[in-house]
Design goal:
This protein has 17 helices and 13 strands. By secondary structure, the chain is an alpha/beta fold. It has a 7-stranded mixed sheet, with helices on both faces. The chain is elongated, with a radius of gyration of 31 Å.
Length: 441
């Protein structure tokens, strides 16, 4: 057969091209420890030249005959054995391998600085919908108020779906899907208005309706006492209670459930094994949030948080001395992702969230968060091992090349052996960095 394909981007505009560019930039970037090593290396070279000059003078004036020959050989051996390249390679080679290993696991890291910061994280803050849950909410409960004139499920669902035609919220999609499934007709509403963190309002046939949480009903002076017990039970089961009303009284209670991702519990347990505190940050009902947190074993819950207040919650944690990662997928998560020490976006989320984050997880799972932390810890450990090897090699090799053993043992290092040792120091650093490819994360 045949098909018609529309290309929304080609060449450099494709997602794959952007991923390749992101990985290349990250591999060529340097964390703070890398910039410190660069400063040391800048001093290292002139220091070696000074040591070689001093060694030449000492051997020329106090060494055995032919003193000039000995002095030249010793000075050249010092310069040959000194290995600034081992210091220079220590950080970038590990970053290159670490970022590449991350990309293989669907983790895109913007730069080496983020990789270093991720190794220090003490707290991971997690959004709920689309992050811990599947992001595929379903309408599971619909109860009509006893005093509603049209005591009819279809009528209530028609009103709710008509209101949601102008909404972009995932919970609204659950209502629209249910109406479509039951062949419920709905019409486009007028004067639509989304009330951030509360719900929506619009007019249908010139009558005003409200759809949202308990706070929205309270704001409109709509009594919800008749459904308080049902709403509490819904929330305790991990569902989200939504109320529908006109401008006078309550019409219905709707329960929307978004299943928890099958691997979220294991991912949270892994974060705890790494010694990281977990916090659930959501605008959802407090009882719903606590139910999800209890199921997953999350340490702390910050619920019923308005989108604009999420950034303040991150700041508060940072002021307590926590190094914070924020994990989210929505537009309203973008400010918090930017404020956090490390912003992590679920790759299936909005472009705004992904753009605001330091790390993007290409797979719709928070398992990548623990892998990111594990890999960053392994990479920083690898860098420190490389630096230790490079420093120890130079601290031992340069004095021996200068002839420190000659007065005691009559041993003078050959320039050939010095050249071999210098080469092997670089090989050792590269070989150690390549171990990251097999590191357990």
């Amino acid at each position: 057969g045949s098909f018609l394909m529309s290309a929304t981007g080609i060449g450099r505009d494709t997602a794959l091209a952007r991923i390749i560019d992101l990985v290349r930039k990250a591999q060529s970037s340097k964390p703070a420890i890398g910039r410190l090593v660069d400063k040391i290396a800048a001093v290292f070279v002139p220091a070696v030249l000074i040591i070689a000059s001093i060694a030449f003078a000492l051997w020329y004036f106090f060494g055995p005959e032919p003193s000039l020959a000995y002095a030249i050989v010793v000075a050249m051996t010092v310069m040959v054995i000194a290995c600034p390249c081992a210091l220079g390679l220590a950080t970038p080679i590990s970053i290159m391998v670490g970022v590449g290993r991350a990309a293989e696991n669907g983790i895109l890291i913007r730069n080496g600085e983020v990789l270093q910061q991720a190794s220090k994280l003490t707290t991971v803050v997690l959004d709920k919908t689309g992050t811990l849950t599947e992001g595929n909410p379903q309408l599971t409960t619909l109860k009509i108020a006893s005093d509603y004139d049209d005591n009819n499920d279809d009528k209530a669902l028609s009103i709710a779906s008509s209101l949601e035609t102008g909404s972009e919220h995932p919970l609204g999609l659950a209502i629209l899907n249910k109406a479509k499934e039951q062949n419920i007709e709905y019409q486009a509403a007028k004067d639509f208005n989304a009330i951030s963190g509360r719900g929506i309002t619009a007019k249908i046939e010139d009558k005003e309706y409200w759809l949202g949480n308990a706070e929205l009903m309270k704001q409109q002076n709509i009594a919800i006492d008749a459904f308080q017990t049902d709403a509490k039970e819904l929330a305790e089961q991990g569902g989200t209670p939504i109320f529908l009303s006109d401008n006078k009284k309550l019409i219905a209670l709707m329960g929307i459930s978004d299943p928890i991702r099958s691997d979220s519990k294991a991912a949270i347990d892994r974060l705890h094994e790494l010694g990281v505190k977990t916090v659930l940050l959501t605008g959802d009902n407090k009882n719903t949030a606590q139910s999800v947190a209890k199921t997953l074993g999350i340490d702390e819950v910050l619920a019923e948080v308005m989108p604009e207040d999420k950034i303040n919650k991150i700041k508060a944690l940072q002021q307590q001395g926590e190094i914070v990662a924020m994990v989210g997928d929505g537009i309203n998560d973008a400010p918090a992702l930017t404020q956090s020490d490390v912003g992590i976006a679920i790759g299936a989320g909005t472009d705004v969230a992904v753009e605001a984050a330091d790390i993007a997880l290409m797979r719709p799972s928070i398992d990548g968060v623990s892998k990111t932390i594990g890999l960053s810890v392994a990479t920083m450990k690898n860098i420190k091992q490389n630096l230790f090897d490079a420093f120890v090699y130079n601290m031992i090799g340069i004095p021996i090349a200068a002839g420190i053993l000659y007065p005691f043992f009559g041993i003078l290092l050959s320039p050939i052996i010095a050249a071999t040792a210098m080469s092997m120091s670089s090989v050792t650093v590269v070989s150690n960095a390549l171990r990251l490819r097999k590191a357990k994360i």
